[in-house]
Every structure is written in C-alpha cells, then in structure tokens.
Write a structure and sequence with these properties.
By secondary structure, the protein is mostly helical. A two-stranded parallel ribbon has the order 1-2. It is globular, with a radius of gyration of 15 Å.
C-alpha cells in the first residue's frame, strides 16, 4: 500500500492476512483507508465485536473453503457460543 498511496488519492482498500493490530497500524499510518478481513470474517461472524472487545478469534479452516456447502461458512460460533463451550 505504501507504493500506491503517493500515486492514488482515492479510497484504498487493502487485504491479505491482516490481524486487528496490523490492520489498525496500516490505517493509523495512512497507508490505506479500509482493511478487508475475508478469512477472519468467515470464521468470526461477529468480528467487529471481537475486535472491539479484543476477544479471542476462532481459527479458520482453509480446507473447508469453496466446498459448496455450509460447512466452514455458517457453522462458526459467535463469541457468546464459544465462551459457553469453554
């Protein structure tokens, strides 16, 4: 993103393996305007809440991506559910 910011002044979105901390650092440095969290959102349907609370995250299971069914997409627990299971 550092390469593009000086030459493009529109809205920049970055993605690719960001954590809460690294995403915030990119935003704070002004290197991007938005950070996308694809895999983390798949595994954490309540990701904004988890980020706000600095709560633990569900690990995603890459082997379930693009299988054609709900497994690995709609069966990850919300924060309250994962805390009850602990």
């Amino acid at each position: 993103m550092r390469h593009f910011r000086p030459i493009y002044h529109g809205t920049l979105i970055t993605a690719g393996g960001y954590t809460r901390e690294t995403g915030n650092a990119v935003l704070k440095a002004g290197e991007a305007d938005l950070v996308a969290y694809g895999r983390l959102f798949i595994a954490n349907p309540d990701l904004p809440k988890r980020f706000k609370l600095n709560a633990s995250l569900n690990d995603y299971d890459r082997s379930t991506f693009y299988r054609g069914d709900e497994h690995g997409y709609t069966d990850y627990p919300f924060l309250e559910e994962s805390q009850q299971a602990s």
